[in-house]
Write a structure and sequence with these properties.
With 409 residues, this protein is an alpha/beta fold. The chain has helices at residues 8-19, 35-45, 59-68, 75-83, 89-108, 116-127, 130-136, 142-155, 164-172, 183-196, 204-213, 237-247, 255-260, 276-285, 302-313, 326-339, 348-354, 373-382, 392-405; strands at 27-31, 54-58, 162-163, 216-217, 224-228, 232-233, 251-254, 264-265, 269-273, 293-295, 317-320, 342-343, 360-361, 384-385.
């Protein structure tokens, strides 16, 4: 009696009223009803429904017809037969609010609550509906798990480097909890972005960069750093580095090697570049006479960060160069903040000298250049990025000058 497609609008409206807890003793009106809909309503009620543009169906009459035909004892029973149990939206909302409050309350009790970035993260996910969506999707434990991961990351006072599966296992008991695209990983990345003062990652590369900044890797063999003439103490890695320096040849270290046998860099000055082009030129031109050089090969890996943190902690002066791009400015600012690094040919004059005849369009989120604010503004105005490869002669000249001023071994 109610199951025909022409009466679907009526069934849907009755269900909506029941779900909202509203009475079903009035009249349902459909404006612009089709002839088929009018005919179906007349057949249901057992009499004509008029010829106007609107179709009105009194619900008590519908209930009476259902009862008279022994089809259903009432409208509620009829709706549940047709489409399943009627939801209690008010009760569901109350339950959601309770779980929402419980989830945020547990997160606010974390010992991280004294940190501004953590409070900002909680406020943002509570305000924009993220917590509600997770609860409704059956992921109410994701907030607690994300909090546990953040606590683990912040409590790591050693070097912070950890495999992502190991981090997930230690923090949540599930090594797959931080799987790419999962709710826990998304929450943690959002918190890390706030901590770093950047926008939430919008691509897989941006996510990987953010994990790396937090010292988290998916593969400790894939996380590598290339060095030239960087001598260090510690066996056996220190011996390998010494042999490579004696030959004036670049050497590649993995995070696994650095974690298994910690090393202490011995250089007074360490120069950092972004492109292997400079390292190749330095090895070819200066060989064993090149000062200690570290190549990030783009965004610094966890292995690179770990090595440079050890160097800066032992008193090495870090001189930093990167691409004139937004990501390059970000990595330089981070190095200045975390390693007390010094910008190396990263000023307005250096950018202007490399700009003519080259450069690509700047992409991504604009970044600041705290060491020389005019640089960021100039790059924003020109809209051009300049890769480090265009400055290889100038950078190489500085390395040569440093070698000339250094005492002979």
């Amino acid at each position: 009696m109610l199951g025909s497609p022409e009466l679907g609008w009526l069934v849907d409206r009755i269900r909506s009223r029941l779900e909202r807890g509203e009475p079903i003793d009035g009249t349902m009106t459909l404006v612009g009803a089709t002839p088929a809909q009018r005919k179906a309503a007349a057949r249901l009620l057992g009499h004509g429904v008029g010829r106007g543009t609107s179709l009105s169906v009194p619900l008590p009459a519908v209930a009476a017809e259902l009862w008279r035909a022994a089809a259903a004892p009432n409208l509620v029973a009829a709706i549940e037969v047709l489409g399943g149990p009627v939801r209690d939206l008010a009760a569901e909302r109350a339950a959601d609010l309770q779980r929402w409050g419980d989830s945020l309350s547990a997160a606010r009790s974390s010992w991280l609550s004294h940190l501004a970035w953590y409070r900002a993260w909680l406020d943002s996910i509570g305000r924009d509906g993220s917590v509600t969506r997770l609860i409704r999707q059956g992921h109410s434990d994701a907030i607690q798990q994300a909090t546990a991961v953040l606590e683990r990351l912040h409590a790591d006072t050693d070097d912070g480097s950890m495999l992502i599966t190991a981090l997930a296992e230690v923090a949540t008991g599930d090594e797959r909890a931080l799987a790419e695209g999962g709710p826990v990983a998304s929450l943690v990345l959002r918190a890390l972005a706030i901590r770093e003062g950047i926008q939430p990652p919008a691509s897989r590369d941006a996510e990987q960069a953010l994990w790396s900044a937090a010292g988290v890797v998916s593969d400790d063999l894939a996380s590598q750093v290339m060095v030239l003439n960087l001598r260090a103490s510690g066996e056996p890695v220190g011996r390998w580095l010494g042999e490579a320096a004696d030959a004036g040849q670049p050497f590649r270290l993995t995070l696994r090697q650095l974690a298994a046998a910690p090393v202490l860099p011995l250089a007074l000055d360490i120069y950092v570049c972004a492109s292997s082009a400079l390292m190749r030129a330095a090895a070819d031109t200066l060989g064993v006479n090149c000062p200690a050089l570290v190549c990030t090969e783009g965004a610094p890996s966890v292995a690179c960060t770990r090595l440079l943190q050890a160097a800066a902690g032992s008193g090495s002066a870090v001189h930093w160069h990167a691409d004139f791009s937004w990501s390059g400015l970000r990595s330089t600012a981070t190095a200045l903040r975390r390693l007390q690094a010094q910008p190396w040919l990263m000023g307005v004059a250096d950018y202007q000298a490399a700009l003519p005849g080259g450069g690509q369009s700047l992409t991504g989120q604009p970044e600041a250049s705290p060491w020389e604010p005019q640089l960021s503004e100039l790059m924003r105005v020109t809209g051009r990025a300049v890769g480090e490869e265009r400055l290889v002669p100038e950078l190489l000249a500085e390395l040569t000058e440093h070698d000339a001023m250094s005492p002979r071994r």
